[in-house]
Task: inverse folding
């Protein structure tokens, strides 16, 4: 598990290191610069580098000038361009400029007249403190960088700490932002590098240890805002006892699939089985019988035709289940509404609520408020907007805050699906931010697979929050495996299921 800090927390750790540990700011700046240079010379021979460094007037700009100086010492051609008002330079920035000038390195002010051919651009305009929209000369500099990168494919862009124009905490693009190939960030990852639109700008994110003290975190003075999983966290999977039987590993009831929507039920059911649950019952429309039995014969099948028929059978099925999945492919029909209402008002088992059930509950929030079971909601951005009664454009920017609002109001766990899925629980100030997954997972049925994975983990007695976090992580890893095999264009949701065995062993 790795922890992520927001801008305020990161600055507090930085300050503690300087004031309490006694490591000077200039030393940290040199370490940061060396770590960036290390990445650049891993990609290029130093003598083949022709670099332009865009330096702002704060400490991020100081990092940039130090990077230019070290590259110059290694044999690179370097041009440093300062953007902004020199009268507003930080003390460290002024010191770095003096050192560069004393070494005969060219330092000029940005005037949009750069003509030289470069193969490396270094973005050191803004650090992690940016909170306002980028305008004026800074906007011009960012546009120059992006246009140069777009027109000359041989150019590599490296962002220092965070791409300029990206909000450190939310990933929001503040007017415009640098599109980097690599972002080298320091000591801890920042949420804004992994969430929402920022993933299109940060490129490959590399976290470098530069000696910033972790003591404020270890002493509990700072509570990291988020955490993420790595390969070592697969060990959190539920233990499987050797003398277990199907009852030992839990029964999942999947209420899914209206007429002609059998696929969603199949995907959720097979994913629950592949994640290790003992038995799956699929509760679906009679029209889906042949498809479900043919696609997943391991599942127990209960079908219905009329509303009255479905209510009587649902009561029996809920009584036998350990975990319930509600919603994939369920439709927005009157019958679907009856199924959702009954389940919300009568089930006491953990419920994973997805897709059409979320849309129905957005129409009838009183059913969610009066629920009798602990719930995990798994909305994508449009569904999250419906639940919160907000515009989708607002939700994309405030996804974490909005998720916490829903988790608090309805006393549930929210899995807000998007690039960089987040999982929140009202009692936890630290949220989970998922770093696994790939673009090939943006395909129909992928969400149905996730609900099945989470349900399979719940059936094996994982806590709701742990099952949600680990389920999202496993889902993403299986997607990555599928993309390695098939590529992002050709993979489907079923390919994610086929690769679960490569992750869960």
Result:
């Amino acid at each position: 598990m790795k922890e992520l800090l927001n801008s305020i927390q990161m600055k507090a750790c930085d300050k503690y290191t300087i004031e309490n540990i006694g490591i000077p700011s200039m030393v940290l700046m040199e370490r940061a610069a060396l770590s960036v240079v290390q990445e650049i010379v891993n990609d290029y021979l130093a003598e083949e580098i022709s670099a332009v460094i865009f330096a702002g007037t704060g400490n991020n700009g100081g990092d940039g000038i130090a990077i230019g100086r070290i590259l110059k010492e290694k044999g690179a051609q370097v041009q440093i361009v300062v953007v902004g008002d020199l009268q507003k330079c930080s003390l460290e920035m002024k010191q770095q400029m003096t050192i560069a000038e004393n070494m005969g390195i060219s330092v000029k002010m940005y005037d949009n007249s750069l003509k030289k051919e470069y193969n490396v651009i270094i973005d050191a305009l803004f650090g992690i403190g940016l909170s306002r929209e980028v305008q004026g000369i800074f906007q011009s500099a960012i546009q120059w960088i992006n246009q140069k990168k777009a027109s000359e494919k041989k150019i590599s862009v490296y962002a220092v700490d965070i791409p300029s124009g990206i909000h450190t905490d939310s990933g929001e693009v503040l007017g415009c932002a640098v599109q980097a190939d690599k972002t080298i960030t320091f000591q801890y990852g920042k949420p804004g590098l992994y969430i929402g639109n920022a993933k299109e700008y940060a490129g490959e994110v590399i976290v470098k240890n530069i000696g910033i003290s972790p003591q404020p975190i270890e002493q509990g003075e700072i509570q990291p805002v988020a955490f993420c999983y790595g390969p070592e966290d697969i060990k959190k999977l539920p233990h499987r006892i050797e003398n277990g039987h199907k009852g030992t590993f839990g029964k999942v009831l999947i209420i899914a699939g209206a007429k002609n929507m059998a696929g969603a039920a199949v995907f959720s059911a097979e994913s629950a089985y592949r994640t290790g649950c003992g038995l799956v019952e699929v509760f679906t429309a009679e029209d889906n019988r042949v498809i479900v039995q043919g696609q997943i014969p391991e599942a127990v099948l209960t079908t219905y035709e009329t509303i009255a028929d479905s209510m009587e059978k649902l009561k029996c099925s809920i009584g036998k289940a350990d975990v319930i999945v509600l919603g994939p492919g369920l439709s927005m029909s009157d019958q679907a509404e009856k199924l959702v209402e009954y389940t919300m008002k009568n089930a006491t088992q953990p419920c994973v609520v997805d897709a059409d059930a979320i849309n129905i509950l957005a129409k009838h929030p009183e059913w969610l408020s009066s629920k009798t079971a602990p719930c995990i909601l798994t909305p994508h951005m449009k569904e999250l907007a419906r639940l919160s009664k907000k515009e989708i454009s607002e939700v994309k920017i405030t996804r974490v805050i909005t998720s916490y609002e829903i988790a608090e109001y309805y006393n549930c766990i929210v899995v807000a699906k998007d690039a960089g899925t987040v999982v929140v629980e009202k009692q936890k100030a630290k949220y989970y931010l998922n770093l696994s997954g790939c673009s090939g997972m943006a395909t129909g049925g992928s969400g149905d697979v996730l609900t099945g994975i989470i349900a399979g983990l719940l059936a094996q007695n994982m806590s709701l929050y742990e099952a949600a976090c680990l389920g999202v992580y496993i889902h993403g890893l299986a997607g990555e495996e599928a993309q390695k095999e098939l590529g992002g264009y050709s993979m489907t949701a079923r390919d994610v299921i086929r690769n679960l065995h490569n992750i869960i062993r």
